[in-house]
Amino acid sequence: MANGGGYGHVAIVESIVPGVSISISEMNGYRWGGGWNRVGFGTISWGEATSGMYKYIH
């Protein structure tokens, strides 16, 4: 995530539906029932995924 200061975590893009959404898994994030030392799974809208909020390595 951009602008997260010194904090952050890594998420893995599990699947992509172009123009619709991306599905991710992430460690240590609280957004989808994860948390410290737990993996959460969720879906991000295409608009959010391409807004510049996230940085992707490929």
Describe the structure.
The protein is mainly beta and 58 residues long. The protein has one domain. The chain is 7% helix and 36% strand. The chain contains one helix and three strands, in the order E-E-E-H. The protein has one helix at 46-49, and strands at 11-17, 21-27, 39-45. It has a three-stranded antiparallel beta sheet. A hairpin with a 3-residue loop joins strand 1 and strand 2. It is globular, with a radius of gyration of 11 Å. It starts with 10 loop residues before the first strand and ends in a 9-residue tail after the last helix. The mean pLDDT is 84.
Provide tags for this entry:
single chain; 58 residues; mainly beta; 3-stranded antiparallel β-sheet; 1 helix
Please give the structural blueprint.
Blueprint: E1 11-17, E2 21-27, E3 39-45, H1 46-49
Antiparallel strand pairs: 1-2, 2-3
Strand residue content: 35-45%
Total domains: 1
Low-confidence runs of at least 5 consecutive residues: none
Helix and strand composition category: mainly beta
Distance between the termini: 15 Å
Number of helices: 1
Which sequence of SSEs, written as H and E, runs from N to C? Answer: EEEH
What's the total number of strands?
Answer: 3
Coarse shape: globular
Main pleated-sheet profile: 3 strands, antiparallel
Q: Compute the gyration radius: what is it? A: 11 Å
The amount of helix comes to: under 10%
- pLDDT averaged over residues: 84
